[in-house]
TrEMBL record:
<feature type="binding site">
    <location>
        <begin position="63"/>
        <end position="65"/>
    </location>
    <ligand>
        <name>5-amino-6-(D-ribitylamino)uracil</name>
    </ligand>
</feature>
<comment type="similarity">
    <text>Belongs to the DMRL synthase family.</text>
</comment>
<feature type="active site" description="Proton donor">
    <location>
        <position position="95"/>
    </location>
</feature>
<feature type="binding site">
    <location>
        <position position="120"/>
    </location>
    <ligand>
        <name>5-amino-6-(D-ribitylamino)uracil</name>
    </ligand>
</feature>
<dbReference type="Pfam" id="PF00885">
    <property type="entry name" value="DMRL_synthase"/>
</dbReference>
<dbReference type="InterPro" id="IPR034964">
    <property type="entry name" value="LS"/>
</dbReference>
<feature type="binding site">
    <location>
        <begin position="92"/>
        <end position="93"/>
    </location>
    <ligand>
        <name>(2S)-2-hydroxy-3-oxobutyl phosphate</name>
    </ligand>
</feature>
<dbReference type="GO" id="GO:0009349">
    <property type="term" value="C:riboflavin synthase complex"/>
</dbReference>
<dbReference type="GO" id="GO:0009231">
    <property type="term" value="P:riboflavin biosynthetic process"/>
</dbReference>
<keyword id="KW-0686">Riboflavin biosynthesis</keyword>
<dbReference type="InterPro" id="IPR036467">
    <property type="entry name" value="LS/RS_sf"/>
</dbReference>
<feature type="binding site">
    <location>
        <position position="134"/>
    </location>
    <ligand>
        <name>(2S)-2-hydroxy-3-oxobutyl phosphate</name>
    </ligand>
</feature>
<dbReference type="InterPro" id="IPR002180">
    <property type="entry name" value="LS/RS"/>
</dbReference>
<keyword id="KW-0808">Transferase</keyword>
<comment type="pathway">
    <text>Cofactor biosynthesis; riboflavin biosynthesis; riboflavin from 2-hydroxy-3-oxobutyl phosphate and 5-amino-6-(D-ribitylamino)uracil: step 1/2.</text>
</comment>
<dbReference type="GO" id="GO:0005829">
    <property type="term" value="C:cytosol"/>
</dbReference>
<feature type="binding site">
    <location>
        <begin position="87"/>
        <end position="89"/>
    </location>
    <ligand>
        <name>5-amino-6-(D-ribitylamino)uracil</name>
    </ligand>
</feature>
Length: 161
């Protein structure tokens, strides 16, 4: 069981995002949760210096579509990193497993195919309360965590240039 606040991190350990460009793809399924993840991610990017002009937010119907939304960013936009935000909640059928498998493998493939960070900001929970707890609730906001990861990965890539 997760016990730590997902949003708790050492602010001084995060590089400046001032000159970085980000794409954010948000799934519309479980909108109450994914919109909170998106707000957290965008706020955190801005807190670390990213400008509105350098943050582009797009929407896809469900979590399964997140990798394709990310691929559109890779091919049609000049972003340094893409944050993929979704929420899959366990139901009575195995749909949960197939969506989780698709988005996980799809995201991994994008990272390696485009040599660019595609951040996995997907909640995979047993129930809605667990998701709410991690989308601005008592366990923080996974959107914040995804944004910090994106900034750190862009800085890492730039450090090799
Ligand atoms: C169909 C479906 C189901 C049952 N559950 C979720 C969910 O919990 N979270 C989510 O983001 N999307 C869900 N979807 C929709 C799929 O992600 C996808 O949009 C459809 O299967 C169409 O490809």
């Amino acid at each position: 069981m997760a016990t730590k606040d997902l949003s708790a991190y050492d602010i001084n350990s995060v590089p400046s995002a001032e000159n970085m460009r980000f794409g954010v793809v948000v799934a519309e399924w479980n909108w109450e949760i994914t919109s909170a993840l998106a707000n957290g991610a965008v706020d955190t990017l801005k807190k670390h210096g990213a400008t509105d002009e350098n943050i582009s937010v797009k929407y896809v119907p469900g979590t399964f579509e997140l990798p394709l939304g990310g691929q559109y960013f890779a091919e049609l936009d000049n972003v340094d990193a893409v944050i993929l935000l979704g929420c899959v909640i366990q139901g009575d059928t195995r749909h949960f497993d197939y969506i989780c498998e698709g988005v996980t493998q799809g995201t991994k493939d994008l990272n390696l195919k485009y040599n660019k960070p595609f951040i996995f900001g997907v909640l995979t929970t047993n129930n809605e309360q667990q998701a709410l707890d991690r989308a601005g609730g008592k366990l923080g906001n996974k959107g914040d965590e995804a944004a910090v990861t994106a900034i750190k990965m862009v800085a890492l890539q730039q450090s090799f240039k």
